[in-house]
Fold MFS transporter.
Amino acid sequence: MLKNPWWVVVGAVLGLLVGNGAIMHFTFGVLLKPIGEEFGWSRGTVSMAMVIGLVCTGLMTPLVGILVDRYGIRRVALPFITLFALIVAAASLTPAVPAVFIAIYGLMGLAAAGQTPLIYSKSIVATFDDRRGLALGIAMAGVGLGVALVPQFAQALIGVVGWRGAYVGLGVITVLFAIPAVAFLVREPDRALAAAAGEAPAVLPGLTGREALKTKYFWLLVVPFFALAMAANGTITHVVPLLTDRGVSPQMATTALSMAGLSLIAGRLLAGWLLDRMFAPYVAVVFIVTPLLGIMLLMSTHDTTMATVATVLMGLGIGAEVDLIAFFISRYLGLRSFGEIYGYLFAIFMLANGVGPFVMGVSFDKAGSYVPVLWVFAGGLVLAAVLILMMGPYVYPSKQDLARRKLAVQEA
C-alpha cells in the first residue's frame, strides 16, 4: 500500500470515473432515444428503468455502508463492482419487453451500490482532517471526468456498434478502471484494519446510525439534498433530448452534456477548496442557487448557446452534491458510523435522482414540455437554500478549528 495519503484521492478519481453516476445515470440520456426508437417506447417508459435502478441503488446503499463499516472497503466493494460491470454489459441483451429492461436496471442499481462515492468518501474522511474538503473535492472530480468522457464514449460506440454494443463497452471500462483503483490505491480505514487483525479498534468520534436519525442535523440535510439532486440530475438526464427537440444535433447536445461534466469537475474542486475555508452551509447555498439559475435560463431561452450555459450551471450544482454530503456528515454527525449514515443520505439522494428524470419524462409525455416540472424544481431549490442555513455550528470541527478556538479563548 502506498503511504502518501493523496494516493487515496488518485484511486477515488479513477474509481469514480466509472462510478454508478457516470456509467448508469449520465449515459442514460444518450441511450434513451436509440432504445425508445428501436422498440417504440415512450420516454416515460424508458425513464422508468432509470427510476427503478436508482431507487434500488438507494435502497441497497445503507446496507453497503453497514457492511463497509464492519468488514472494510475492499471485501465489500470488489464483488459489487464486478457484478455491476457484468449487469451493465448484460443490458445489451435487452428484448423488446419493457418489464425486462426495467428489471435489468433494477439489478444494475442494486450492484451499483458498491460503486458509489460512499466507498471512496469513507476512505478519504478517515484519512484527511484539515484538508478534508479539498481531498473530497479532488476525489469527487472523478465523477465530473466520468460525466465529461463516458457519455462521449457511449455516443461513439452507438455510432459504431449500436446501443447494445455501447452497454458492453461500458461494462468493460468499469472493470478496467474501478477494480485496480479499489484493490491497490483506496486505503482501508484504521478501524477496519484493526478489526481484521483482531485488535481493539479506536472508537471514532460521532454518532451511531440510530442516534443520527434522531437529530435535527440529519433531517435538515434530507430535504435540501433531495431537492438539489432531483432538480439538477433530473434536468441533466433529459438535457440531450431537450436540446435535440429544439433542433440541436445529437452530437452538439452530447457536447453540451460533456460541458456540464467539465463544470461538474470545477464545481467539485471549488466546493472542496471553499469547504476548508468557509462555513459549509454558506458553500452549500452557493451550489444550490447555481442550478436554480440554470433552470430559470432553460425555461426562458431557446438559444443554443444560452442553453449550453444553462447546462453548465446545472453541472456546477451537481458538482458539489456528493462531497457536500460527506463533509456535512463528518462535521455534524461524525465518523463513528459514517458508512451507515452516508448510506441513508445517499439512498435519499438516489431516490431523488430517480424521481427527477421520471417526472421530467412524464411532464414531456403529458404536457409536451419540460417547463411545468422545471418550475417545481425551482421552488424546491429555494426551500433547500433556506433549510441548509438552519444547520448551526459544526458539532465535530477539525483539529485546526479547535486550535483556533482555543487560541481565541486564551487571547480573550
Remarks:
- The two ends are 46 Å apart (CA to CA).
- The chain has a mean pLDDT of 85.
